[in-house]
Design brief:
The protein is mainly alpha-helical. Helices cover 48% and strands 7% of the residues.
C-alpha cells in the first residue's frame, strides 16, 4: 500500500511515495523464495524510480491521503497478473560436488613453518580491529605452528585482522604470510584447503579493486595482495587433490595474466568432472577474459538462483560482479 508524501529535498519540499504495507501471497506455485525475490526486486525498482530513503520517517513530511486501497481479492488478482511475465524457477545447473580433499591428519599436528620476513614489517605502525597491529606476528606464528592451536589462531585472525568483512592496514601485509603457510610442504592438507578458501573470501570483499587499480583503501590493497599471490600459489597445482585444484582455479580468475600458461591444465581438470559446472566454467571464462561467455554463464544462473540477479545489478565494474557471482556459486557447488 502506497501513500503520497512530501519530503525535504535538496531544493525544498518535494513529492514522493511511501510504502505503508505489504501483503504477501498468493504465488503462482509453492516456490515462495523465488516469487518473493522477484517481488523484492520489483519494489526495489519502484524505490529507485520513485521512492525516498530517509533515516527519520517523521521528517518525510505529512501524508496527503491514501493513494491505493484495494480489497484483498483485488490485490491477489493484480498480484497474480503481475507474475505473468516472470518464468518459474528453472532447474539449477549447480551440482554439489564431493571432491577429493587429500588425506586428513589424524593428530592435527604438523611440522612448524618458518615465516620469512615477518620481522621486517613495522606492525606497530599498522592497525587492525582492536587498535595497533603489533600483536599480528604472534597470530601469524600461531598459524605457522601448524599444530592443535590452528583453529584458535584462525579465529583470532578473523576476529582482529579481518573483522566482520572489514579489512585494515595490517590485513594486506598478512597476505604474503598466509601464502607462505599455504605453500609450505609441511602444512596439513585440510589446512591448505582452508587457507585457499580464506584467501578467496578475503579477496571477494573488494573485488572491484581488480578493475580499478587506483583504489588505495585497505580492502582494495588486500584484494590486490591476494591477486599478487596467485602466481606462487599456482605452483601447488600439479600435486594438489581435486578440491585444492578447484580453489586454485577460482584464485586464478583473480589474476588471469598469471594463469594463462596453465590454461590447458585447467581445462583438462574441468574435463575430468562430469556434468555441468557453472562455477568452473565461469572461472575459465574469466581466466581467458572471454567477457561475453562469462556474462552468458552469469545470466543463465539468474533463471534459478535468487541472488545472482542482485549481484549483476550492483553498481560495480562488470568483472567485480562476475567474480562475486563466481564465489557465490562456488559456495553452493564446492561447499
Amino acid at each position: 500500500m502506497l501513500t503520497p508524501c512530501t519530503y525535504r529535498g535538496r531544493w525544498g519540499d518535494e513529492p514522493g511515495w511511501r510504502v505503508l504495507a505489504w501483503d504477501d501471497g498468493p504465488y503462482p506455485d509453492d516456490d515462495i523464495e523465488w516469487w518473493t525475490a522477484e517481488e523484492h526486486r520489483f519494489v526495489a525498482r519502484l524505490t529507485d524510480a520513485y521512492g525516498v530513503r530517509h533515516p527519520s520517517p517523521p521528517e518525510l513530511g505529512s501524508l496527503d491521503g491514501l493513494l491505493v486501497d484495494r480489497t484483498r481479492e483485488d490485490v491477489r488478482e493484480f498480484r497474480m497478473a503481475s507474475f505473468a511475465r516472470t518464468q518459474p524457477r528453472a532447474q539449477s545447473a549447480v551440482v554439489p560436488r564431493q571432491l577429493d580433499q587429500g588425506p586428513r591428519s589424524l593428530s592435527g599436528e604438523g611440522e612448524p613453518i618458518m615465516l620469512t620476513g615477518l620481522d621486517d614489517v613495522d606492525w606497530s605502525s599498522l592497525d587492525h580491529a582492536y587498535g595497533s597491529a603489533d600483536d599480528t606476528p604472534d597470530i601469524l606464528r600461531a598459524l605457522a605452528a601448524n599444530d592443535e592451536g590452528w583453529s584458535d589462531a584462525m579465529h583470532e585472525y578473523f576476529s582482529a585482522i579481518v573483522h566482520q568483512d572489514t579489512m585494515y592496514s595490517a590485513t594486506e601485509r598478512t597476505i604474503p604470510f598466509l601464502a607462505q603457510i599455504a605453500l609450505s610442504p609441511s602444512i596439513l592438507p585440510e589446512r591448505r584447503l582452508e587457507l585457499l578458501q580464506d584467501l578467496l573470501y578475503i579477496a571477494s570483499q573488494d573485488a572491484w579493486a581488480l578493475s580499478e587499480p587506483e583504489g588505495d583503501s585497505p580492502g582494495a590493497l588486500t584484494t590486490r595482495a591476494v591477486a599478487d599471490a596467485v602466481p606462487d600459489l599456482l605452483a601447488l597445482w600439479q600435486l594438489s587433490p581435486q578440491a585444492h585444484k578447484a580453489r586454485l582455479l577460482l584464485l586464478a580468475a583473480l589474476n588471469p595474466s598469471a594463469a594463462t600458461t596453465q590454461l590447458k591444465q585447467f581445462t583438462d581438470f574441468r574435463a575430468t568432472l562430469a556434468g555441468p559446472s557453472p562455477t568452473l566454467d565461469l572461472a575459465l571464462a574469466l581466466i581467458t577474459q572471454d567477457e561475453p561467455r562469462a556474462q552468458a554463464i552469469a545470466l543463465r544462473t539468474t533463471t534459478w538462483d535468487v541472488r545472482t540477479p542482485d549481484y549483476l545489478a550492483e553498481n560495480l565494474p562488470l568483472n567485480a560482479r562476475l567474480i562475486n557471482i563466481l564465489l557465490h556459486l562456488a559456495g553452493d557447488e564446492l561447499g
